[in-house]
Amino acid sequence: MIVKPQYKFVSSFKEGLAAIVTDKAIKTGYIDEKGTMSIEPKFDFATKFIEGFAVVIVDDKKGIIDKTGRIIVKPQFDSIGSFSEGLAGIKIDKKWGVIDKTGKVVIKPQFDYIRNFTEGLAVIKSDKKWGIIDKTGKAIIKPQFDLIGSFSEGLAPVKTDKKRGFIDKTGQVVIEPQFDYNRNFTEGLAGVKIDKKWGFIDKSGEVVIKPQFDLIGPFSEGLARIGIDKKWGVINKTGKIVIKPKFDFIGSFSEGLAGIKVDKKWGVMDKTGKVVVKPRFDYIYSFTEGIAKVDISNRHGYIDKTGKYVWEPSR
Hints:
The chain is mainly β.
């Protein structure tokens, strides 16, 4: 036992720290991977660390701390997004802007909404239309679309006149809006929906896996989950079904393994469909560095790739 059951809540570890909530004061702090209190519980709420910083709430206002617990940005904003590429969105009086890691406002609050920066760009909403800005706040794409997704592999999904396509970073429409729904590109392919069925296209817009599935997930490690008649299986990049639909749900592959759900319990399978950890958990997360977080009976623990506990479940 690394950390004895003593907290009202313990989050998963991120960047070496986990948020904890105490029973008595109901305040949030952080412990390290040895269970040592790293940041004393003194916040009304606190998020996981991302890029060395976490968002905290004090008296209904949000600020930012570093891993020592030092307040980098004093709680003053109505909302703060997570840091991404060194920047985070902030909300003041119903408008969104951007701060850097020193807390300096680098893009003044002026948008109705802003998403995290990805690939140097952020999607913004203004007057019910969506556009894109760079890190200086310059409009790369003026608000004109009904919806824009985040950039992935150089392209972003867009919606206009009830149809969906893709744009590049200059705002050029590279795949005309023609789909009922679309998702981000991963590993060179993007899911698209046509006439209630899902398939995949490549970056030229060519359909490489014809729409035939009820549901899909993104490609990960060369494989994607697909749903047929309420059961889930797996396909490869040619569209060939390599694991027949027989599970209640399947997670994305990570480190050669994916979570599977059978009769309300979660286990793990490998890329051949072989069950390597029998379903017995309430939920299982993706594997990272050989271990995965699991939930069981409102408790949280960690297992290795054989299903053996490396951290026994505790509340």
